[in-house]
């Protein structure tokens, strides 16, 4: 096969997007290319199916049954889902992470955007140092981040407590039931401001500079340019950070799970939906119900991120 | 970024954001700089505290001020960390490196092959399969872990190293990234030329394309490596034998023993020093491999 083919992958860079109606009789070269494409995609798709599709299907299947000491496994239809929807422990967890989401995500993303705009303005001294310092927490595993903040919050040797005692003030009760959600928000904010900032900063760098030139000619100030040109220009990057944050909030597990050892009376077994699913599976051994909760959670997250995306796309069009 | 977003075209793709000459006069602002610098202690203080605390013995942790040094005890702490429970910390480091390394290389290779095929070949199921992969970016990994555990329990894979490695080989985001990257990085004319020279499609991938895809490959590798290095939930539910734990699960277990206070108070200093040891490789990797992070995040964010 030496003749260069004009069909098949010619201009293949955009091909998947515009694969038009196809003819039946492909030339041997095209067939060879199809075979190569399937061969290249196959290893990923096999692992993808085994590790992502099959577990979800299996969990969906398990969630339709109930395990009983007497009588073994029996089909119960959607009873586990009905139970989850009426389960106040699950409901409280969902409400708690929703509250978390509504407060923490705007603060975190707002700060990330401010830092990204400050870096992009080119007006900072020590830019590289600033960028690295803010991004550094992302390199810290959430387990270590939570351990650190847990100690910093703690009444034993936390510096905040030490400072308060030095000033004869009451120690801030970071790990009390009233403060815990805020303390968790702070850990997540610390971990992810830099990550979101880098996404936004990279998007800002890709905006053509001549867009600003015209505005400057018209006498627009930097703040005006940031608000009217830069932020709209990177809305798709901002949307991405919103969606990732929504997904992250509903999955909250590591941080509450680790703070539980410091405040067992504040963080109960159903503090977040994921913590609840975990405790159902491994403490209560109620695997079928745990599968239903996990599946409901995954489906819920997918729906919420889809809705976030749809509404913002609609707003963009109007 | 998702199944509903049209695939980016070549023109939009810019894997390495190039520095753009700034339109402004290049004036630096001392005021803005001071304002930003004032916020940096928030990001750095916890890490500074970790460094200070890992130089203290357990008694000084409680008795001395947390943000300043007391007697320098780092060497003893390190010895404690590495000798505790028969040197199990060494196993945790080895396990973490193994899990993260295999998952990183494996996921990068799978994603590169698939992303390249999606970008450079027009084949019947291509569009459909790629949409499915894109949709999967939205599937929450933590919520997926319990279903995966249930499945692995059925086939007796729990409490094996495979239980941590296999699920970490899948990176739908990596495929998306490589699809965007390959579209630009591998010129179609080059593939045609190789075909004219009689090279088979597989040979083109392994000898021509793979080299051009190396920067993207490394970006995906790094992302997956760090994600696996940091993973806690999956190994926590999959593994029960301490010698198979990664650092995250091991440290969390030490912490819960220490906080339980069952005569094991000495462990606090070990948890802290162990935490410091566990983040050193990552911090170094971050500082030295910065451009790959930025490239990866840019491709994900700009094209969303």
Automatic annotation (TrEMBL), chain B:
Which residue ranges does UniProt annotate as crossing the membrane?
30-51, 97-119, 126-150, 162-183, 204-226, 266-289
Q: Which Pfam families match?
A: BPD_transp_1
Main localization of the protein described in the UniProt heading: membrane
**SUPFAM superfamilies noted in UniProt:** MetI-like
Q: Could you tell me which InterPro entries the record lists for this protein? A: MetI-like, MetI-like_sf
Alphabetized UniProt keyword annotations: Cell membrane, Membrane, Transmembrane, Transmembrane helix, Transport
Q: Where in the cell is it found?
A: Cell membrane
Q: How does it sit in the membrane?
A: Multi-pass membrane protein
Pull one GO CC term from this UniProt entry. plasma membrane
One biological process term in Gene Ontology: transmembrane transport
Q: Where is the ABC transmembrane type-1 domain?
A: 93-289
Q: Does the keyword Transmembrane apply?
A: yes
Q: Region Disordered: start and end of each range?
A: 1-26
Which family is annotated? Belongs to the binding-protein-dependent transport system permease family.
Matching entries from PANTHER family are given as:
ABC TRANSPORTER PERMEASE PROTEIN MG189-RELATED, ABC TRANSPORTER PERMEASE PROTEIN MG189-RELATED-RELATED
Protein known as: Carbohydrate ABC transporter permease
Give the organism's phylogenetic lineage: Bacteria, Bacillati, Actinomycetota, Actinomycetes, Kineosporiales
């Amino acid at each position: 096969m030496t003749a260069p083919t004009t069909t098949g992958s010619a201009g293949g860079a955009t091909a998947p997007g515009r694969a038009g109606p196809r003819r039946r009789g492909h030339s041997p070269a095209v067939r060879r290319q199809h075979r190569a494409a399937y061969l290249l995609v196959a290893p990923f798709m096999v692992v993808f199916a085994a590790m992502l599709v099959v577990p979800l299907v299996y969990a969906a299947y398990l969630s339709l049954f109930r395990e009983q000491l007497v009588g073994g496994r029996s089909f119960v239809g959607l009873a586990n889902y009905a139970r989850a929807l009426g389960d106040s422990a699950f409901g409280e967890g969902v409400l708690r992470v929703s509250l978390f989401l509504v407060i923490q995500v705007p603060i975190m993303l707002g700060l990330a955007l401010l830092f990204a705009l400050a870096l992009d303005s080119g007006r900072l001294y020590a830019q590289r140092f600033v960028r690295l310092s803010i991004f550094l927490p992302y390199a810290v595993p959430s387990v270590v981040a939570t351990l650190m903040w847990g100690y910093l919050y703690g009444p034993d040797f936390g510096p905040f407590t030490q400072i308060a005692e030095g000033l004869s003030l009451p120690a801030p009760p970071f790990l009390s039931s009233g403060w815990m959600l805020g303390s968790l928000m702070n850990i997540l904010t610390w971990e992810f401001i830099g990550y979101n900032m880098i996404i936004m900063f990279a998007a800002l760098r890709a905006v053509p500079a001549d867009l600003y030139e015209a505005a400057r000619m018209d006498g627009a100030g930097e703040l005006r340019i940031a608000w009217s040109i830069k932020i709209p220009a990177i809305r798709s990057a901002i949307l991405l950070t919103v969606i990732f944050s929504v997904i992250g909030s509903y999955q909250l597990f590591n941080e509450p799970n680790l703070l539980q050892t410091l405040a067992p009376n504040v963080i109960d077994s159903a503090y977040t939906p994921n913590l609840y699913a975990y405790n159902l599976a491994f403490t209560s051994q109620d695997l079928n119900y745990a599968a239903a909760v996990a599946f409901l959670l995954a489906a819920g997250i997918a729906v919420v991120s889809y809705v976030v995306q749809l509404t913002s796309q609609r707003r963009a069009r109007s | 970024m998702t199944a509903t977003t049209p695939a980016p075209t070549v023109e939009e793709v810019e894997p390495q954001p190039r520095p753009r000459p700034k339109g402004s006069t290049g004036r630096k602002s001392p005021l803005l700089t001071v304002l930003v610098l004032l916020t940096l202690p928030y990001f750095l203080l916890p890490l500074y505290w970790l460094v200070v605390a890992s130089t203290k013995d357990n008694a000084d942790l409680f008795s001395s001020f947390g943000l300043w040094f007391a007697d320098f005890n780092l060497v003893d702490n390190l010895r404690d960390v590495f000798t505790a429970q028969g040197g199990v910390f060494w196993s945790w480091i080895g396990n973490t490196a193994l899990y993260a390394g295999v998952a990183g290389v494996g996921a990068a290779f799978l994603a590169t092959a698939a992303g390249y095929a999606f970008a450079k070949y027009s084949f019947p199921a291509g569009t459909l399969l790629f949409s499915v992969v894109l949709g999967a970016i939205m599937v929450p990994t933590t919520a997926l872990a319990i279903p995966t555990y249930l499945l692995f329990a059925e086939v007796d894979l729990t409490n094996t190293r495979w239980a941590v490695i296999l699920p970490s080989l899948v990176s739908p985001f990596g495929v998306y990234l490589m699809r965007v990257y390959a579209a630009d990085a591998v010129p179609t004319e080059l593939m045609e030329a190789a075909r004219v020279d009689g090279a088979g499609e597989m040979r083109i991938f392994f000898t021509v394309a793979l080299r051009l895809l190396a920067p993207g490959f490394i970006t995906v590798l790094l992302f997956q490596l760090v994600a696996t290095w940091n993973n806690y939930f999956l190994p926590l539910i999959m593994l029960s034998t301490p010698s198979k734990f990664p650092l995250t699960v091991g440290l969390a277990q030490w912490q819960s023993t220490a906080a339980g206070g069952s005569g094991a108070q000495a462990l606090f200093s070990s948890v802290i020093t162990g935490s410091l040891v566990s983040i050193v490789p990552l911090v170094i990797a971050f500082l030295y491999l910065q451009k790959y992070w930025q490239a990866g995040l840019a491709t994900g964010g700009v094209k969303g």
